[in-house]
Amino acid sequence: MSYYFTEDHELFRSSLRDFFQREVAPNIDQWEEERKTPRHIWKQMGDMGFLGLGYPEEYGGSNLDFFYDVVFCEEISKLYSGGFAITQLVVQYMAGTYVMKHGSDVLKQKYLPGIISGDLICSIGISEPGAGSDVANIQTTATRVGDHYIVNGSKTFITNGVYGDFIVTVVKTDPKAGAAGVSLLVIDRNAEGVSARKLKKLGWHSSDTAELSFDEVKVPVENLVGHEGQGFYYLMGGLQLERLVAGISGYSGCESILQYSMQYMSERAAFGRPINKFQVLRHRVAQLASEIEATKQFVLHCCRMHNDGHYAVKESSMAKLLATELSDKCAYQCLQFFGGYGFMEEYKVARMFRDSRVGTIGAGTSEIMREIIAKMVIDDVSYKAAATPANRPAAPRPKPKPDARAASSQVRQSPASRGMNPPEAQADAPMQTSQMDMGRMLAGIQIKASSMDPLGNTLKLDMGGEQLFIDGKGDTNEVSLEDAAADCTVSLAPDDFQALMQGDLNPMTAFMSGKIKIKGDMGVAMKLQHLFS
Amino acid sequence: MYYFKEEHQLFRASLRDFLKAEVLPHLNEWEEVGQLPKTIFQRFGEMGYFGLRYPEQYGGSAADIWYTVVLMEELSKVNSGGFGASIGAHPFLALTHIYAVGTEAQKAHYLQKGIAGELIGGLAITEPFGGSDVGAMRTTAERVGDHYIVNGSKTFITNGVSSDYLVVAVKTNTAAKHAGISLLIIDRDSAGFRARPLKKLGWHASDTGEISFDEVKVPVRNLLGAEGQGFLYIMQQFVLERLFLANGAIAASDHALEYTLQYMSERSAFGRPINKFQVLRHKIAQLASEVERTKYFIYHLWERFEKGDYIVKEASMAKLLGTQLSDRVMYDCLQCFGGYGFMEDYPMARMFRDSRLGTIGGGTSEIMCEIIAKMLIDGKGY
Lengths: 533, 382
What we know:
The complex is a heterodimer of chains A (533) and B (382).
Chain A: H1 7-24, H2 28-34, H3 40-48, H4 66-76, H5 82-102, H6 105-117, E1 122-125, E2 141-145, E3 148-159, E4 166-172, E5 182-188, E6 194-198, E7 209-220, E8 224-225, H7 231-267, E9 269-270, E10 273-274, H8 279-307, H9 313-337, H10 349-356, H11 366-391, H12 402-410, H13 423-427, H14 438-451, E11 458-462, E12 467-471, E13 478-480, E14 488-491, H15 494-501, H16 507-512, E15 517-520, H17 522-526, H18 528-531
Parallel strand pairs in A: 1-4, 11-14
Antiparallel strand pairs in A: 2-3, 3-7, 4-5, 5-8, 6-7, 9-10, 11-12, 12-13, 14-15
Chain B: H1 6-22, H2 27-33, H3 38-47, H4 65-75, H5 81-101, H6 104-116, E1 121-124, E2 140-144, E3 147-158, E4 165-171, E5 181-187, E6 193-197, E7 208-219, E8 223-224, H7 230-266, E9 268-269, E10 272-273, H8 278-306, H9 312-336, H10 348-355, H11 365-377
Parallel strand pairs in B: 1-4
Antiparallel strand pairs in B: 2-3, 3-7, 4-5, 5-8, 6-7, 9-10
């Protein structure tokens, strides 16, 4: 029984599965050998309506809920070939999504129908030889000259970069600006000046991975995705989805390889009995199955958050971290069940083992996941702890019993006590927050705002009842307490504003964790980084 | 998110206030004494905490399972495994059976007074000769007229010394294995009922008894349900017990992490708070992720439990993972405290030792793996 998939989802699953078993599974060994998956298979999938599940109907998509995508990611990951799976996962969930979410109508018309029909294959170009996870530090530049950008630089580890049709490329349109200078450009693979070198890899043999170089590549301005300078923000949103997909792919791969192993263990005999009767192996299977089930349910929970529109950065990062690490553990232990056969290519487990290994590296390494999680769990907790006493409901009442209510009203305690802390631990806990002195705040932000370049727009910081208005249209940024409509409104809690001002809270982290909500022109908000640094 | 509504959170807040006012100030003393005073059970009764799941006719609130989950979580966050065990054994182990299969007369007495906190129970299954191997138990109950004559012994029984009665698994038919097991309610004041408190590594605030029955006369009306059905009854409640243990372990882990993070933000070394050291940050990130995963797995299973799904395998998985994780969390958190982690002035030492029983009580990790393996590999159902 499932709490996420309806009967319709399951019908879709079985038709997708049938297709994969008929058209894909028998050919994968060959595609792995050839180091290339033929195009016709994507075209066939497009014809069947398997592509563009969540894409709008006007471009040929099906506009379905996210759990159809979950089914797609699950099933494509159960064919014992990471290379086959990643090709289309990149197209549908890691590259095409930027065009769909942020692209102009022209751009959408140009590229979306092709990736939904299976005619076009695309890539996402983020990593460079000199920068992987550190996106703000990329070196590829796009200089505006008339109606074109001139792109120079290089990208590496680009899936579909050799045989694909276009690359959603992360470039610096303003090399001085750090994260705020990042933009996304769609670059055609066969544009003059684009060249690719096919990389040899440990696994993922049926997919192509490229090192790309851009030498004075002329890209029409209409190929800019969304707005200049907002690429980093688009990526932050897109990477959430990428991590969820990695999570789904991770647990599904685990499920399939464990199933495959259990089948083998029931057939293989040693010392006069099937090896699935040996207690040590049985317990290993039980442990793995438990971890897979828990991880799956957690990833599905994260998918539900995504489907419901929650910006679940922490959870998605946790999902990606746990599922990909489990996949390596699972592949390693399952290979062991096969003994010497595990090392031979005639069983699928060798391929699963090597294909799994990139999971903890691609789409943000495990170390980057832990960095993100640590920032949100550790640096956040101290604020939460500080805010707790003041924010506690004054007289909470229990629901269940009338006499319970009477008793709870007698209960008194010091609001500062956290119950178990030894006194010395409490003494220097940060306590002073919520009382805000608007005047002092105004002075502080005025100093910072006047020392930076004018925003060029108006920005309002809404703190629920109190607000700061920054008018950056003149020569300097003017700060006032005025409550007027602005190009961009940034909403946040007073405590978080204070933390931002004191440099205790990173604006990007705060945005990603939903503490800051932004309405209006995102480009203005991107400049907040300077205001608080 | 998704599982608790505002009313549950209000209940949580008021329960927290209650625990802070009436439990936390006394915990150190109770840990020293080695058992809980009757008065705290009475207060739990007065507050309505024992009757959350039970019908109103017995004094309960007939509230949904999430209230009970909140209770279980908060009991696990006061940092005394013994307190949670002793308070929890009464409603979650003893009353569960009386409610499930008891007669009206039994419910009128044991359940009603139990919910009120006036009559406290425990559950006695394990024997010195057999723990998880329930079928091999040796305590016998021989029918003589209107009574059973009970002989044998039980061990590791929470509330075994201080409770008013025990729900005891006995063999009414010694020739049969599982099919010979029945449940009897045996009152503490029965002649021939003796209990000896056991000294333990942790769980100091709870009393754990070794019980002996020497020709104990138990009226036939104290039989729970039908003769020979005891094993089935025990099995039926295992899912609930396992989910409680898993949830408790994860709530305690949550609490340990929160407390450790607080400490790490205040403790400095080499000129900066220790929460700035990357190795420690990544360790916390890993643990927090695993706790979050396991917690939502368990919430998912509570939802399925409430809807009546068959979740024996999944509940066993949750118990296995939750209690294993708790030991790791406590170990790693204690490390973050350095020498202070080893001192009783800080709570980590107690959290560490109290966690250790998790992978043993309520079915060992090995038994969980056996069950999961049988269901998964051999296709067996329970």
